[in-house]
Amino acid sequence: MIKEEKNTQTKSKDKKQTPIIEIKDLHKTFGKDNTILKGVNLTVNKGEDLVILGRSGSGKSVTIKCIVGLIEPDQGEISVFGENVLNLSKEELNKIRVKIGFLFQSGALYDSMSVRENLAFTLRAHRRDLNDEEVENEVADALESVGLADAIDKMPSELSGGMRKRIGLARTLILKPEIILYDEPTTGLDTITSKEISELILDIKHKQKTSSIIITHDMACAKMTADRIMVLKDGVIHAEGTYEELEKNEDEWVRSFFE
């Protein structure tokens, strides 16, 4: 009886929780007949790291790009911080975007700029109130948070793949986002570096209280970072649960990710 009452209380508490991201019935087709999303529904709660799994081309990256307006869906609703971003003006959407960090697969650094200049450029574009000394301090703090303070004057071409990921993350963190969208954060990295990036994702979550969606093929990363996992198949969410739950899922296709 006590156990049942506890479960009931937990469910009641969950119902009161307002998702920080909520996607309803999201559809997207490219060209005439390349349908990628066929009605995706998902939520991310405040302080949660949600991992999305799926085969290549299943629409994982398309989904998160729709959240920040990099891709416009054909149908559906995307609510971020309680606002439907698809109904916002460009100015209103930009205010939301400042609160959302997006880590691209490549890190997306400007090759002609030093690490210092990459981070300062991003900060000045959104924080015109800061003077040069304040910008320098923010850049130094962001690099310190990813363990690369010594790389401040390096050029992107001098950085390893793992370092580029960290610098890309520092550039994302410099705006102190409430949400971070990670697109394949460990792709192309060796096992040790991948683990370091996964640990960094967890560290950021705990220190900065971020909420995240993590797109990955790296099951070690998924196991380490996920509070909850969703699996995309044929344009919809096919399965959902914790790593341990999905690892034992009755669906052989779902279990294949965990073998």
Please supply descriptive tags for the structure shown above.
259 residues, alpha/beta, Rossmann fold, 2 domains, 4-stranded antiparallel sheet, 23% strand, disordered N terminus, P-loop_NTPase, ATP hydrolysis activity
What do you see in this structure?
With 259 residues, this protein is α/β, with parallel strands linked by helices. It folds into two domains: 166 residues, Rossmann fold (3-Layer(aba) Sandwich); 67 residues, no CATH class. The strands form two sheets. It has a six-stranded mixed beta sheet with strand order 6-7-8-3-9-10, sandwiched between helices. A hairpin with a 2-residue loop joins strand 9 and strand 10. Helix 4 packs across helix 5, helix 5 crosses helix 6 and helix 7 runs parallel beside helix 8. It is globular, with a radius of gyration of 19 Å. The two termini are 37 Å apart. The N terminus is likely disordered.
Strand content of the residues, in percent?
A: 15-25%
Structural class: alpha/beta
What value does the average pLDDT take?
Answer: 88
Order of helices and strands: HEEEHEEHEHHHEHEHEEHH
> What is the CATH superfamily of the largest domain?
P-loop containing nucleotide triphosphate hydrolases
Number of domains: 2
Do you know the CATH architecture of the largest domain?
3-Layer(aba) Sandwich
GO molecular function, one term: ATP binding
Domain ABC transporter: 21-259
InterPro entries: AAA+_ATPase, ABC_transporter-like_ATP-bd, ABC_transporter-like_CS, P-loop_NTPase
Organism: Flavobacterium defluvii
